[in-house]
Specification:
Oligomer: heterodimer
Structural class of chain B: mainly alpha
Strand content of chain B: under 5%
Largest sheet of chain B: 2 strands, antiparallel
CATH class of chain A: Mainly Alpha
Structural class of chain A: mainly alpha
Number of strands of chain B: 2
CATH architecture of chain A: Orthogonal Bundle
Number of domains of chain A: 1
Largest sheet of chain A: 2 strands, antiparallel
Strand order of the largest sheet of chain A: 1-2
Strand content of chain A: under 5%
Shape of chain B: globular
Number of domains of chain B: 1
Largest interface: A-B, 57 and 47 residues
Helix content of chain B: over 70%
Number of strands of chain A: 2
Radius of gyration of chain B: 20 Å
Order of helices and strands of chain B: HHHHHHHHEEHHHHHHHH
CATH architecture of chain B: Orthogonal Bundle
Distance between the termini of chain B: 57 Å
CATH topology of chain B: ABC transporter involved in vitamin B12 uptake, BtuC
Number of helices of chain A: 16
Helix content of chain A: over 70%
Shape of chain A: globular
Chain lengths: ~325, ~325
């Protein structure tokens, strides 16, 4: 008699507990993003409550998400990559000269840029691995090298404009798509990169090795992970993704020498908001993408509220510190 | 007889505690090589003109002063990337408050020093109480300062009075005031690190924070103190720069790369980035090496963008020359 009645409430509270446990496991970045996006929709219904508006938002937010995924690989291994912003500037400036205003040069220019991405990442990775220079100094030095090199090559100012076919990746849409209306190329690029990165990070040995190295270098070394190789590859991934992000940003932004300024911090901020642990050992591709979207939504929100542009720096600084402190203090409590 | 042994002892003690680092060999080598390069490819001013020598040192003053603070925080196993914008806010705020009026100097100096203390406290508290990685904490604070000054000032603001320019241009006999102040800051830095309880606690915290805490050092306080001192040195550098430029602009700090270069000079001066080891005199040599290189590039007429590339490469290689010997993996 009692035996038959007891399990019923138990089952109910169990399911409740399970649901609650499931809700608690949702990374905070998703509710935060949804709340901010709802506020945006409330403040500017025309722009943020139509499919067209959402697609435009995704177009502007996608490049940052690409940069953030690249940054995530380096952060997950316990390093920092601060060359990201300089690489974006490099892409835009050097392409403006390589293209020579001729659309036929777009493909070779993009190939050359990707080649540079591999090279920059390779040098970063080798310097950190073999010369043992901490990555933030290596990449800060590389930042000067990349920016200085680009400015030296173009002679201090952009040469010519970016051809329309080069800019298509960041600017254009596929028109007349059912349900969505029009889909920006940028969204397709971020989806492809997200799937590639997700599989690489979650479904391959390489991904596990990244986390292992980020968690404990010595332990992973002793268990046979080729730490230096893994590290070099993460730096290459980050630089190549920065190049791709740069091509997307160059697509909708103009050609100017300050276009990439501060993007490395935005990428790190997006990762931190997406729950990446600085110092390594944790990361998630979808969370980081939504971290980037959240950051972009916050920037748009500040714009709507009429705050001058420099204040986005202030807010970003507060977000970075706040998010890192939140992660640090909550994980400390668990210990 | 006894007096000579005493003074001998004192002398020995002092030299031992000063402990001239090997970096000075590199300093002399850099100077000679630069001088020779200059001799062959330019007008040979570096070796023949003592004014250039003095110029190298004056150029090193701004970097040199802030590098003392950076050395302290790095000894404490922390880092400060907010110094560049601390320098900017100092330059802008002091010329804004002074507005070319000597009477306002006594108001401006404590006010700006107060801002420095606040920045240092913000850095130190974020690192120790909120447990934020020092690198990210100071970058975040730096972004906040950057946003505030860029939102408020967009160009040269106000000016400093003639009397304040004494700091940048004045001389006591043949020696520029700025060099005397540089030396005073280094002596103060050395004294704090080598002769006070704060100094030994800072080394202990940098060496092993947990051990230091268990042996009764108030680690948080020590680290916050080091960050406040570091921001103060950035403020003094800012004062020097604004007195040279006569008016402050928001880009003074970041354009001078004071964050990165102060770290690089500290590291090539023999202070370990992992903390617990090092001192200010090595940093001074690092600063002078950077000053010599800078002057040499100018003498040789190197393209400014190429100079940026060379600076980046030199910083990384300079740090690499120290880190390459370490057995630990970097990240």
């Amino acid at each position: 008699m009692t035996a038959s009645t007891v399990p019923a409430p138990g089952r109910l509270s169990n399911t409740l507990q399970n649901t609650w446990g499931w809700i608690k496991k949702i990374p905070p970045v998703y509710p935060v993003f949804i709340i901010i996006f709802l506020i945006l929709g409330f403040l500017n219904p025309v722009k943020y409550q139509s499919m067209n508006g959402i697609m435009t938002f995704l177009r502007t937010a996608s490049p940052l998400a690409v940069l953030a995924i690249g940054e995530m690989f380096v952060l997950a291994i316990g390093g920092f990559d601060l060359t990201v912003g300089a690489i974006v500037t490099f892409v835009v400036l050097v392409s403006s000269k390589l293209l020579a205003n001729d659309p036929a040069n777009a493909l070779p220019a993009i190939m050359i840029m990707l080649g540079f991405g591999v090279l920059i990442g390779l040098v970063n990775g080798l310097v950190v691995s073999y010369l043992k220079v901490p990555s933030f100094i290596t990449t800060l030095g590389m930042m000067l090298l990349v920016r200085g090199g680009a400015l030296y090559y173009v002679g201090g100012a952009p040469q010519g404009y970016l051809t329309d076919n080069w800019r298509a990746f960041g600017r254009n849409y596929i028109e007349n798509v059912p349900i969505f209306g029009r889909v920006p190329y940028a969204l397709i690029i971020i989806i492809v990169i997200a799937i590639f990165s997700y599989i690489l990070f979650n479904r391959t040995n390489f991904g596990k090795q990244i986390l292992a190295v980020g968690d404990n270098v010595l332990a992973s070394q002793l268990s046979g992970v080729r730490v230096r190789l893994v590290r070099v590859i993460t730096f290459i991934l980050c630089s190549v993704f920065a190049i791709i992000g740069g091509i997307m940003i160059g697509g909708y932004g103009g050609v100017n020498v300050t276009i990439g300024e501060g993007l490395e911090m935005q990428a790190i901020a997006a990762c931190v908001v997406g729950g990446v642990l600085l110092g390594g050992g944790k990361g998630s591709v979808p969370n980081v993408i939504f971290g980037a979207f959240t950051l972009q939504a916050i920037v748009n929100l500040l714009n709507i509220l009429g705050l001058p542009k420099p204040y986005t720096d202030v807010v970003q600084g507060l977000i970075i510190i706040g998010a890192v402190a939140y992660v640090g203090l909550t994980s400390q409590k668990k210990q | 007889m006894t007096s000579t042994t005493v003074s001998d002892n004192w002398f020995r003690r002092t030299t031992r505690s000063v402990h001239i680092p090997t970096i000075y060999v590199f300093l002399i080598a850099t100077f000679l090589i630069s001088g020779l390069l200059d001799q062959f490819f330019s007008d040979g001013q570096i070796l023949s003109n003592p004014a250039i020598m003095l110029n190298i040192i004056v150029r090193s003053v701004a970097l040199g002063i802030v590098a003392v603070g950076q050395t302290m925080v790095i000894i404490g196993a922390s880092i400060d990337l907010s110094v560049a914008y601390t320098i900017s806010i100092t330059a802008v705020m002091s010329s804004y408050i002074m507005q070319g009026d000597t009477a306002k100097v006594p108001i401006a100096i404590p006010a700006v020093l107060g801002i420095g203390v606040l920045i240092g406290l913000a850095n130190g508290l974020t690192i120790t109480k909120l447990k934020v990685n020092p690198f990210i904490a100071t970058l975040g604070i730096s972004l906040i300062i950057k946003g505030i000054i860029n939102a408020t000032f967009s160009n040269y603001t106000g000016s400093v009075p003639k009397s304040f320019e004494f700091f940048g241009y004045g001389t006591l006999g043949p020696i520029p005031v700025s060099i005397i102040i540089l030396l005073l800051v280094y002596i103060a830095g050395w004294f704090l690190l080598a002769r006070t309880k704060f100094g030994s606690h800072l080394y202990a915290v940098g060496g092993n924070s947990e051990v230091a805490r268990l042996s009764g050092v108030r680690t948080d306080r020590v680290l916050i103190g080091a960050h406040v001192l570091c921001s103060m040195t950035a403020v003094i550098s800012g004062f020097f720069l604004v007195s040279l430029m006569r008016s402050g602009a928001p880009w003074v700090g970041p354009n001078g790369l004071y964050d990165l270069e102060s770290i690089a000079t500290t590291v090539i001066g023999g202070t370990a980035l992992s903390g617990g080891k090092g001192g200010v005199w090595g940093t001074l040599a690092g600063v002078l090496i950077f000053g010599i290189l800078d002057t040499t590039f100018n003498q040789l007429g190197v393209n400014p963008y190429l100079k940026m590339v060379l600076r980046g490469a030199i910083i990384v290689l300079a740090v690499a020359s120290y880190t390459i010997r370490s057995k630990k993996e970097a990240a």
